């Protein structure tokens, strides 16, 4: 779940933008089928902040394996500082950029103690001032911990938003701006979770599961996959 400013050009297979009524129908159907949640394990705001930083260029499953053991001893910023960067890096060794992530987590914990009394702040500008915390990471924390209606655009959200016809943008930042304008207000708080989970399990990158998708009749993607051909009778 890496923060990314990489521009992306929507593919030619994308069709028109959805109408307001169609957008309402999209999120109503997703809300019927998806429990909005993060798949990162966490109990405290610090847990989630650390987990989201670790999830950059990694999977939630890999992060959850690391944090299950890490949190046996690290429950506060002071615990992380006592552990130290080198030993923290050993915990993170199985995921990418583990040394950079250890350095970032130590820096985060130091600033949380110096500036925020050890608590995770609820303002975007304070979160983004922490080492290793970019716009998307801050959006996840603001949404999941503090209930703010942010939309964190990762590769799944970017793909699904464009295939469905919710957005037409060349970057995650532009996609976020468009989604915040068009997602119906009743679904805005959980929009990120609906889109990311739909992208992980149904609207997958290489072969979307269009025949079983509850949004197939609304989706504007022109390269929908077909149902497997029936086996010939013998």
- Tell me the overall shape: elongated
Instruction: Briefly note the structural class of the backbone.
Output: mainly alpha
Give me the CATH architecture of the largest domain, please: Orthogonal Bundle
**Helix tally?**
11
What separation lies between the terminal Cα atoms? 48 Å
Number of strands: 0
What is the top-level CATH class of the largest domain? Mainly Alpha
CATH fold name of the largest domain: Endonuclease III, domain 1
Corresponding CATH superfamily of the largest domain: Hypothetical protein, domain 2
Order of SSEs: HHHHHHHHHHH
Uncertain runs: 2-7
Number of domains: 2
The percent range for strand residues is: under 5%
Cα-based radius of gyration, to the nearest Å? 19 Å
Share of residues in helices: 40-55%
Architecture overview:
The protein has helices at 20-33, 45-54, 60-70, 77-83, 85-92, 98-116, 124-128, 135-144, 155-164, 172-182, 191-201. The model is unreliable at 2-7 (pLDDT under 50). Helix 4 (77-83) crosses helix 6 and helix 9 (155-164) crosses helix 11. The relative contact order is 0.17. The chain folds into two domains: 20-36 and 150-212, Helix-hairpin-Helix base-excision DNA repair enzymes (C-terminal) (Endonuclease Iii, domain 2); 45-144, Endonuclease III, domain 1 (Orthogonal Bundle). With 234 residues, it is mainly α.
